[in-house]
Amino acid sequence: MLPSAPLAAGVSATATPAAALPTRPGGWPACASTTRRESTATCNCSGHSDECFYDRELYRSTGHGGRCLRCRDNTAGPRCERCQPNHYRWDGQAACQPCHCNAAGSLQLQCDSAGACACKANVTGWKCERCKDGFHSLGDGGCRDCGENGAER
């Protein structure tokens, strides 16, 4: 029996080892919809989870039924194959990193695949954290022109 731990909905706390059960496509136990896997070979959790279960709907829509549980390294998805929202991963990196886009200066909190954020008008910087030359007062609307309201350049 597997060690007891909080489990996702539809996962049995008294899982039977996969090798002891009849199988479905992909080597999944016949009653795998409520069986936790001791091996993630069938799941292919991208190295970011040690647990998975058979998801019939996922199998019907994708041809693989392994849904990973508790993805690590800020990853998400049935196979822990993508980054969580507002995270990115450079090529070759295992873990996803937080974007840290400046909420006042960014158009959105999601960055691109290199970690750069999309900036509002007259805002600059990797994380949209400062005003462009000739502008000031970073706020929710971006930065204001130094020539506005009597401000000097």
Automatic annotation (TrEMBL):
Pfam families: EGF_laminin, EGF_LMN_ATRN. GO terms for cellular component: basement membrane. Disulfide bonds join C71-C80, C99-C111, C119-C128. PROSITE patterns: EGF_LAM_1, EGF_LAM_2. Keywords: Disulfide bond, Glycoprotein, Laminin EGF-like domain, Repeat, Signal. Residues 43-98, 99-145 form the Laminin EGF-like domain. GO terms for biological process: animal organ morphogenesis; axon guidance; tissue development. PANTHER family: LAMININ SUBUNIT GAMMA-3, NETRIN/LAMININ-RELATED. This is Laminin EGF-like domain-containing protein. The lineage of its organism: Eukaryota, Metazoa, Chordata, Craniata, Vertebrata.
